[in-house]
Predict the structure of MYXO-CTERM domain-containing protein.
Amino acid sequence: MSTPSGAHPGNRPARDAADGGPTEPDAIRADIEATREQLGRTVDELSQRLDVPARAKEGAARAKDTAVETYRENPPAVVGAGAALSVLVAFALWRRRRTRRRATVEGALEESRRAHERDAQRARKELAARRAAARKARRKAAQKAEKKARPFARRKR
């Protein structure tokens, strides 16, 4: 901290004496005591400003008071905002876990295995659909052939 020129602690009594300040030992002691008290107050003020946990608690208390006041004024809006915030946080956590899982080798293998399972399931469904379509086509062809063969069977008799 800078001080004005000539205001060094060692020069103060001499300057006070030159300015008509205290020259008596008791007056000098009183001046020193007043300076100590002022310095003590300054140190206390600075320590309060630098006390991060206490300032954080004060900020949290202010935020809580503001939230309570807002809730009293409009409860549904606060509940809705809280629900929206909860959903947003849950979504962010889900995305973060998903990204981390993919970033690891095990996660990449797991994701690859899941993709393979999805592809295999899709292929099984497609194969089943093709088989069903083929059975249906064979059945229709057999019915059609049987229908065509019926008139010839009647004529031969």
Remarks:
- The chain is about 85% helix and 0% strand.
- The two ends are 126 Å apart (CA to CA).
- Confidence is low (pLDDT under 50) at residues 1-8.
